[in-house]
Amino acid sequence: MGEETGGKYVEPGGEFTRDQRYIATRITADGRDGYPVEPGRYRLAVSRACPWANRLIIVRRLLGLEDAISMAVAGPTHDARSWTFDLDPDGRDPVLGIERIQEAYFKRFPGYERGITVPAIVDVPTGQVVTNDYAQMSLDLSTQWTAYHREGAPQLYPEHLRAQIDEVNDVVFRDVNNGVYRCGFAGSQEAYDKAYHRLFDRLDWLTERLTDQRYLVGDTITEADVRLFTTLVRFDPVYHGHFKCNRQKLSEMPVLWAYARDLFQTPGFGDTIDFDHIKRHYYEVHRDINPTGIVPLGPDLSNWVTPHGREALGGRPFGDGTPPPPPAEPVDPAHTPLR
Length: 339
Known about the structure:
The chain has ten helices and four strands. By secondary structure, the protein is mainly α. It has a domain at about 160-335: Up-down Bundle (Glutathione S-transferase Yfyf (Class Pi), Chain A, domain 2), CATH 1.20.1050.10. Helix 1 links the parallel strand 1 (about 40-45) and strand 2 (about 70-75). Helix 1 (about 50-65) runs parallel beside helix 3 (about 135-145), helix 1 crosses helix 7 (about 225-230) and helix 4 (about 160-175) runs antiparallel to helix 6. It is globular. About 45% of the residues are buried.
């Protein structure tokens, strides 16, 4: 994401403010922005460490778009210039032929001065970045790429629930997804205190909402659940300690902990998670918060696969659809508790 491009992260003396000026170009069925939906044309650049990129990995997998949109996976750490493809042979993405995602940004916008972020979608024929507008990107996978969804793909953004989903997404983004960063990158005690209370007040609100219903909106998994999950799954390994979000661990909040485990154990969610990459990214990159770069060994993550009991609330994870098949691009099993 924008603030995670190497260098300094804490806002001295004040509140962290996220730069939300993203490349607004869209890939649509009608090609209105010059980039029509076309299988095989685009490559999704991600890091498994990044919660914002993790959303796109999950949605792409749930909808079965792996064959339509290929995926470039950057390593968990980066320098001040950008994310690098250091996991690939010779440190170069085999499709785009580049060492760092910055090259795709500069190819379309020479001297691009905003954040060189993931997720980003690249036009393979030209090697140019198309968009890094992560919120719109995942919605477009649901609404613009329908011709290439797998049989049994779930409705993650159904029309009759969009207003509710948008409302929940808005408050979850402000107070939870971005809220943990407002705690972690606060530059004053006052800014931290304010962010801390705002975060946990919203987590209490979510606890109430999820006490008697299995999912955030309706009785099936939607875009809203994807967006909350990628923050919750990072809470105990990273945000509780590294970002000082420490009123409680997620595992000490029974409703949210059961909800998160329910999703984690659902095909398409936990099988995208690489806890090793997640921990290495935050603890190694944010040196003004963690100067030594030491990555903690804990917490024990095997409890993610314990029974959650949320089936008793009813709900149908995929609605009239079906679970996705096993992942075509599996996470290193040594990096997750799925052993």
